[in-house]
Predict the 3D structure of the following.
Amino acid sequence: MDNERVFAYTFASIYPLYIAKAEHKGRTKEEVDAILIWLTGYDKNGLKQQIDKKSDLKAFFAQAPQINPNVSKITGLICGYRVEEIEDKLMQKIRYMDKLIDELARGKKMEKILR
């Protein structure tokens, strides 16, 4: 898939998909928010502002207060790629986010997800 196309997706369009995926597996919106806050440094209000502004993923990560320094501990496959080997830094951040939500949906404990 073309990276620029992915970067243009709005956070507002992806966020409800993450929540639906989590809730379908018995997890909560609050857990999704905790993961996003841990990863990006946004607070709940900051996440809401990004949704309201319809920020694309490029802007969402560019404006993130601070990417968690422990992201390098996120490893494994997502969409057939090892997240730790993705060269494009923005795509890697997007895949980190996907990986964390996948772990939540698979039932992993929050303490393990939030390395």
